[in-house]
Amino acid sequence: MVQVLKDELRQAILRNAQDEFLQYGYAAASIKRIADKVGMSAGNLYRYYAGKEALFDSVVEPVFHKLESVIKSHVREPSNEDNIFELVVQALIGLIGELRGPLLVLIDSSKGTKHEDALQRLHQMMADNVAGHLEAYNSAQGRVVFTEQAVWPISVAFLQGYFEIIRRHSDTEESTSMVRQYVLFWYQGLRAFL
Q: Which residues bind DNA (predicted)?
């Protein structure tokens, strides 16, 4: 029973820390405000987390690793093209629910932490993924259609669009619909709309 209460308290601390980091960013976030919202002293909070940095890490590291896994898992394409679309949509939608807040903290509130380069690292992972796809496409075409220089802007544009959906649509059902539409637009390509 005591362990359950400790786990519930730890989760309450994380939820309130996430809200604090979203509202104030890392630098202006306050351990005292977080503790007050949880109903404990700052000193007691330090029994659970060694400091603001450890608390921040606990909020953002799981979502960073999950997004890293999503990006890297799509390097190999399944043979069924319809399956690719649905796999990408489901992977991106899977991050929206309970990980929406930590993802926003990671991409928008990491300045001053060891994670402030997380967005750059995510863009690089995506660029590596896209490079593999473009290379395979060029090979299938028997000529260079997409150069290496196209990789970075394509990767950044895709991720930034996804992050913008998460920022603007807090309702899970609405954001799920937007992600599906967004991936469909990329999947079908601009050619279909011109």
A: 30-49
